[in-house]
Amino acid sequence: MSKEQAHEEDDWLIDDSADPPVLHCEMPWRLLIVDDEPDVHRVTQLALRDVEYKGRRLELLSAYSGEEGFALLRDQPDIALTLLDVVMETEDAGLRLVHRVREELGNPLVRIVLRTGQPGQAPEQEVIVAYDINDYKAKTELTLQKLYTTVISSLRAYESLVAIERSRQGLSKILEGSANLYQMHSLREFASGVLAQIGAILDVGTHGILCVRRGAGSGSVALQVLGATGSFAEAARHDELDSAHPAYALMLQAVERQQSLYAYPNEVLYIPTQTRHEFLLYFTPPWPLTEVDKDLLEVFCSRIASAFDNLHHHLQMTRAQEATVVALADLAEYRDSDTGEHVLRVERWTARTAQRMAERGDYPEQLTPRFLELIGMASILHDVGKVATPDLVLFKPGVHDAEQREVMRRHASIGAAILQRSARMVEGQSYLSIGAEIAGGHHEHFDGNGYPQGLRGEEIPLSARIVAVVDVFDALMHRRPYKEPWSLADSLDYLRARSGKQFDPRVVDAFLEVVEQEYAQE
């Protein structure tokens, strides 16, 4: 090889034509040059400006000291390769940076290639053993071809490591996200959770729509919108996806094929379930999915299907329990249409009062999300024991005598006993267990002068203390066989006067706030 040929091989400026930029849809590979010589940056940028790997161009960043390099690697952890000089602001600035990146930043992924013009300052054999680097090159040997080879091999290694790490993190997010899905109690919650987890698995703020097609194989093309995010949020305002929406045809295509469609930028996940529902998730990631992404999403789809089947069975059981509660309430109230309206009002006031108490910070250990979910429906069972009360006593227009009063009071104990027997068949808190507390305790008084057990203060279950206020308020406000309705002002004055005596003061305070808000809106 002639001296002139050798010079041409070492010359990184052999192709300095100004070609027009090429537009790419994928994220570029990010490469960091850390060197205190501006000429090194310039020639490296010129040498690598047209290099691509797997259709992705290079984005070159520059730092002129070890400290600048550290700041960039700290703030931009997706840098794939660092071409690093050894001698910069100090004789070992590059070696110090290697240590800080691996130890201080905990970044094992970025590929680090040392380039030095003074090999004697950092002997190769010592450096390659003592420092976690991936290659060591003298600047004099790093020709255009060798630089190209070094960059491509480094990117290939980085890609493999990132794929392994994404798989690990993705599977971890799938396990964590699936567990959260199992805890959700509504389809809307479920949809929000699925859309959030897709974004987390792909590590992007994905825009998407989640639809469900009920009754697989029925021929129906109706796609119910469960949730939508980002630029598709408008779709969530409609019950069904408009057939003119770009996602509609793709979703039906996925249904017809019974498989997911990956056609960047429009991706559709097809998720069949054992309950004959088909979920379709349309989303638009900012770059094409890798095979790792697709594999992770397929795994997540199977977990979504299992989570939905679990949710479906949970909702069915909940509806069955609610139907049982309603049937019991109807059984107790069927003789009086007015009291039927009464239990509906009690349900609404009870749920709102409990929620307001939670917002105020009252009884935080008892006002759990589960309690708040159950207490409204459970409250309609407060007088279920009246099923055993004779009509002569129940509908007497006037004051009961002593014997009739005793018969009337038995409804509290009878109701509690009926519901307690049923509640034992359901583990944990349920409509029946809370209903039993309410039925047995809503006539107890905070000062101990109530019935049937003469409980006082917090001996009375919180659920019963809440319904006690609500039940009396509604009874005062509406006509009964033995009384005319009271005014709102007189009814509220009664509650205030009986606070601390008949009623829990904190319940009264919360209820008054709810009533004030309710009537202020009218």
From TrEMBL:
Question: Which CDD domains does the record match to this protein?
Answer: HDc (cd00077)
- Residues bearing 4-aspartylphosphate are D85
Q: Where is the HD-GYP domain?
A: 317-522
Q: Which Gene3D superfamilies match?
A: 3.40.50.2300, Hypothetical protein af1432
Q: Where is the Response regulatory domain?
A: 30-154
Matching InterPro entries, A to Z?
Answer: CheY-like_superfamily (IPR011006), Cyclic_di-GMP/3'3'-cGAMP_PDE (IPR052020), DUF3369 (IPR021800), HD/PDEase_dom (IPR003607), HD_GYP_dom (IPR037522), Sig_transdc_resp-reg_receiver (IPR001789)
> Could you tell me which Pfam families the record lists for this protein?
DUF3369, HD_5
In Swiss-Prot or TrEMBL terms, this protein is called DUF3369 domain-containing protein
The organism's lineage is:
Bacteria, Pseudomonadati, Pseudomonadota, Gammaproteobacteria, Pseudomonadales
